[in-house]
Write a structure and sequence with these properties.
Length: 1034
């Protein structure tokens, strides 16, 4: 009856499909048994229980013939599609990491997935979790596209933080490497194709200046890496993350050149920076050129894009404003131009047609309308900007306080004498040295005793601990060293300054008050100078305080130091500097002292950002500034900090403006020719100008959302995806993994464990399962750290989904859908289905729920899978339901919610009566399938319009780039040849050769874009369910 290789299925459970092996054929009790290969393994069963699968399973045919499957079969089929698909309405990274849910942190995930340039600049304000956003993006790419090659580039001081964050929050084991090691990794991957994850500091990778000099190229590992990157013909990285990307903003530096080399060989590129969005700033353009050089290489084109975006902003804002009627919005959209570069014609055509036809004015329709307008913005697809004031869960109140006091006579005498000597030197020397004198003046304001001891030792090094990791040490001029040394050579004066240190007295007085009021608080004290930190450590230690130090000169691992500080006894004080605290999370503290005050407020903002960030549990934080009266620090604080509201409010968009005025302030403060009154007047002028610029910056930021930030629409999509019925629950994953392991590998176990107070399981792999999983992990997920690599056969305590408390339950392994064990099971099931995917039909009964907002009764729900292959490939599961009593169509999202929430409750299969079965078939054929067909047509039209608009935009940009560069090169060639100079004639040949190479590269890009054809694979009816909703009285 059946031959080897025939596909068969069970008559009483038609969703279970297998293949006849032909290896076992026998009789038992008068019945013939044959062996079949099922997704759950091999089994022998009676022939009379099987039927042949002539064609692919057909859910509608099964409904007509009354062949129903268990509800669990439909749930597993949907789980498998979610595990293996690229579903547009799912965010796979959601719930797959050891991070708290904050909706705004998923905005970059959706933006990057929809970015035609496959690049994104995350320009969120400080403290919002850009590292977490980058980790979520990598998790999403792994789940959707099986990405395996990750490179993180960051400042040297942040390397350890990145390694720990990836390991602890995203289960990514990324070793730290230098240029030579990364080059070896890349060469090895070209042979093995196993993938890799790596972290490197910016300074360890950036190429030397003459790395590509044709005459005398630089030597060394960094030069070799740069050459390898430049010569690569294919992508070397699936995702590159560059943190603190503002270090790449100067296009003349090797940092920027490294960014170009890396971006050119990365499938996806991600740049992180707290740089505010000022669309008129060259710094921003420089970063965008790294993401999309064809679009942003030319400054004039950037301006064109801004102009073409302006009408879109107006339409977007109108759609979000309920006061603007839809008729007026339709008029605005009717007047939108298609653009010279930004091609939106096909999408605009569809949108205009829908508005002409009529659209109900509801909040959800307005959100969708705004989203469709936003998607037409090219700038909006490559920049993500989230501000702290826009994040509802980030409302920490800053409470700055100033501890001011008068110096003692001995302190005042030394302060005035040292200031006079510094000013006298400044008066006699070049103005360029005054920036160094500013640091000298700052050390004096930081600690008189430290300055006296330091200068008395005739040391020219200031040890200012706020420089970049590769910066040279600032050395004071020799004559100034000698001058200051002469006034700092009396041990008695030094002893008196230390004995009568009024600043220490002021600090310890505050600490005593805090200890009495908040004895459990740990405290952070910032200073810019290592020698000051050393002095504070000794004085506070002598006073009985427990102290820890963290600055650029400390060799201990910074993350370990922070961990020890977090677990230290109450009242412990951390003494740190800008470099020591850069990029670290200290939100478990709420009290911060500024022992000294940098003249650059951006440095203070970075200090405060260590505790004023996501995760801060206190509703307020205390910021205490220690400032002596009648000092240069007081002048800076009163005029700059207080008048501009700095410290109390975040700098946000004011940062770049401050950078411009700091130089002016330093010049004023170190100008010996000015009297104090003249200094105050000049400072007031600078501050007034800064206030005006701040107002301008706020206006620019108000323009930015329409260009670079999705608003309510994208957050609505994220919150929709967060709904439990849209996500794979822990139970879904447990059932999915357990079914595969237990049924396919005899001896494997997935059993609940009662040893913890969370729902956990002990998973034990059989020897065969352990061996096959090890092979899979070696080839597919070698760098994902998991206890199953070594302990799978002895048992691993696990939780499905994310670990609710990784610290408390550190012995329990989280198994999200991206875990190698889950991916291993998905691959097994896909292979066992032999290309024939089940299409279950089921019927269930479920109690009514208030949130469903439908009347009790019977509903038929059909699920289709739609796919689109194009510039941005996606899959989608579409749910359409209708009532068997009257035929009314359910709201679009309600059908999915009802079915998925009902299946989660594990209902039993209920039989369908003959009349009910016939009514369901009639409803499906007459109402549901036509509705699905209409929605599918709309889906395909929308995706086709987006695809062709994106392709046309890219082609237009490339053609424009070709024409402009050709004109420029031809003008150069013409000028060289007319000169009559042999040397310039030779230059003309070089320009021509460069042009030919450029045109060849552009033609290749044109061919690549043109090859991105659009097609829609055949849709499939995934399953059908008849859901009977029972009211309370039944």
């Amino acid at each position: 009856m059946f031959a080897a290789g025939d596909r068969v299925r069970f008559k009483d459970d038609p969703s279970v499909i297998g293949v006849v092996t032909g290896e076992r054929d026998f009789e038992r009790a008068g019945r013939r048994f044959i062996e079949i290969e099922l997704p759950s393994g091999r089994t022998a069963c009676p022939v009379n229980q099987l039927e042949a699968v002539i064609a692919a399973p057909d859910a509608l045919a099964d409904l007509k013939s009354g062949k129903l499957s268990a509800p669990a079969d439909l749930r597993r089929a949907l789980t498998h599609l979610r595990m293996t698909g690229r579903l547009a309405d799912m965010i796979y990274s959601m719930g797959a990491t050891n991070t708290e849910f904050h909706a705004y942190q998923f905005k970059p995930v959706l933006k990057l997935l929809n970015s035609p340039s496959r690049g994104l600049l995350i320009a969120d304000e400080v403290g919002l979790g850009k590292t977490i956003e980058a980790g979520l993006i990598w998790t999403e790419l792994v789940a959707r596209f099986d990405s395996r090659r990750l490179l993180v580039i960051c400042p040297k001081a942040l390397v350890q933080k990145w390694r720990d964050e990836l390991r602890n929050k995203f289960n990514v084991n990324a070793p730290v490497c230098n240029a030579a090691e990364l080059l070896e990794i890349l060469k090895d991957d070209q042979v093995r194709r196993e993938g890799f994850t790596a972290i490197a500091s910016l300074s360890s990778l950036r190429p030397p200046r003459k790395w590509n000099d044709p005459n005398e190229p630089a030597k060394g590992a960094r030069a070799d890496l740069a050459t390898f990157l430049a010569d690569a013909e294919d992508d070397l990285f699936d995702l590159t993350i560059i943190d603190e990307a503002h270090h790449l903003r100067n296009t003349d530096t090797t940092n920027h050149r490294l960014g170009q080399l890396i971006s050119n060989v990365s499938d996806y590129s991600l740049f992180l920076s707290a740089t505010p969005i000022n669309l008129r700033a060259n710094d921003l353009r420089a970063l965008l050129k790294l993401i999309d050089p064809d679009t942003f290489e030319r400054e004039w084109l950037f301006d064109v894009l801004q102009d073409e975006n302006a009408p879109l902003i107006k339409a977007w804002e109108a759609a979000r404003d309920r006061r603007v009627p839809l008729s007026e919005i339709a008029e605005i959209i009717a007047d939108l131009p298609e653009g010279q570069v930004l091609k939106t014609g096909k999408r605009l055509e569809r949108l205009r047609a829908e508005l002409t036809k009529g659209m109900e004015d509801t909040p959800s329709n307005r959100v969708r309308l705004a989203a469709r307008i936003e998607e037409m913005s090219l700038l909006g697809s490559i920049i993500n900007r989230t501000r702290r004031r826009d994040v509802a869960e980030f409302k920490v109140l800053r409470k700055p306080q100033t501890a001011a006091w008068e110096m003692s006579k001995a302190e005042r005498d030394f302060y005035d004498l040292a200031t006079q000597q510094i000013e006298a030197y400044a008066y006699a020397h070049d103005i360029n040295e005054r920036f160094l004198l500013a640091q000298t003046q700052r050390l004096l304001a930081s600690s008189l005793a430290t300055a006296y001891r330091h200068w008395g030792g005739r040391s020219g090094f200031l040890e200012l601990d706020e420089e970049e990791d590769d910066a040279s040490r600032n050395k004071m001029p020799g004559p100034l060293i000698a001058t200051l040394g002469e006034i700092c050579d009396d041990p008695l004066v030094l002893a008196e300054l230390e004995r009568q240190d009024s600043k220490i007295d002021r600090l310890t007085g505050w600490l005593k008050t805090i200890r009495e009021r908040d004895p459990d608080e740990r405290i952070i004290i910032f200073s810019s100078f290592r020698k000051t930190i050393d002095y504070l450590a000794k004085r506070l230690g002598d006073a009985g305080y427990s102290v820890m130090e963290l600055h650029g000169g400390i060799k201990a691992d910074r993350q370990e130091t922070i961990a020890r500080f977090a677990e230290s006894p109450s009242g412990t004080i951390l003494l740190t500097s800008e470099v020591g605290g850069e990029g670290l999370d200290l939100q478990f503290c709420r009290i911060l002292f500024n022992w000294d005050l940098p003249w650059n407020p951006m440095k203070v903002e970075q200090r405060i950002g260590r505790i004023d960030r996501i995760g801060q549990q206190s509703p307020s934080i205390d910021i205490i500034n220690l400032i002596a009266e009648d000092t240069i620090e007081q002048h800076v604080y009163d005029r700059l900090y207080l008048r501009l509201g700095i410290i109390q409010q975040t700098l946000g968009d004011f940062e770049p403006i401050l950078g411009e005025i700091i130089r002016d302030i330093e010049l004023v403060l170190t100008d010996p020719e000015l009297t104090q009154e003249q200094r105050d007047a000049r400072l007031d002028q600078s501050i007034l100008a800064a206030a005006e610029r701040k107002a301008q910056a706020e206006e620019l930021e108000r323009e930015a959302p329409g260009l670079v930030a999705h608003g309510d629409s994208i957050l609505q999509r994220i919150n929709d995806a967060q709904a439990p019925f849209r996500r794979l629950t822990g139970d879904d994953l447990k059932d999915y993994v357990a079914t595969a392991l237990v049924n396919l590998f005899e001896g494997s176990r997935v059993q609940p464990t009662s040893e913890t107070d969370i729902e956990a399981y002990e998973i034990r792999l059989s020897p065969t399962a352990q061996a096959q999983f090890s092979l899979y992990r070696t080839s597919q997920a070698r760098r994902y750290p998991t206890r199953f690599a070594r302990e799978g056969n002895t048992g691993v305590k696990s939780v499905f989904g994310s670990n609710p408390d990784p610290v408390k339950f550190r012995a329990i392994e989280a198994i999200p859908m991206t875990h190698p064990l889950a991916r291993f099971c998905a691959g097994l099931i896909e292979e066992r289905q032999s290309g024939i995917t089940p299409r279950p039909v089921t019927a269930i009964r479920t109690p009514d729920r208030p949130e469903w907002e439908v009347a009790p009764g019977r509903y038929a729900i059909c699920i289709e899978k739609w796919s689109m292959e194009g510039i941005i490939p996606i899959d989608r599961l579409a749910f359409v339901g209708a009532s068997l009593e009257g035929g009314a169509i359910l709201p679009e999202d309600m059908a999915e919610q009802i079915l998925m929430e009902a299946l989660i409750e594990e209902p039993e299969l209920r039989p369908l009566g003959d009349g009910e079965q016939a009514a369901t078939v009639a409803l499906v054929e007459s109402t549901i399938l036509p509705s699905l067909n209409s929605r599918r047509t709309d889906f395909e039209d929308a995706e086709a319009a987006r695809h062709f608009d994106l392709v046309d935009t890219q082609l237009a940009l490339i053609h424009e780039h070709k024409e402009r560069e050709t004109r420029r090169a031809e003008e150069q060639i013409h000028d060289h040849r007319l000169s009559g100079s042999d040397r310039r004639m030779n230059l003309s040949y070089a320009v021509k050769a460069k042009l030919d190479k450029f045109l060849a590269r552009m033609d290749l890009k044109l061919a690549e874009v043109s090859k991105r054809t659009l097609h829609f694979p055949a849709h499939s009816l995934v399953g059908i369910a008849v859901v009977e909703i029972v009211g309370d009285g039944k």
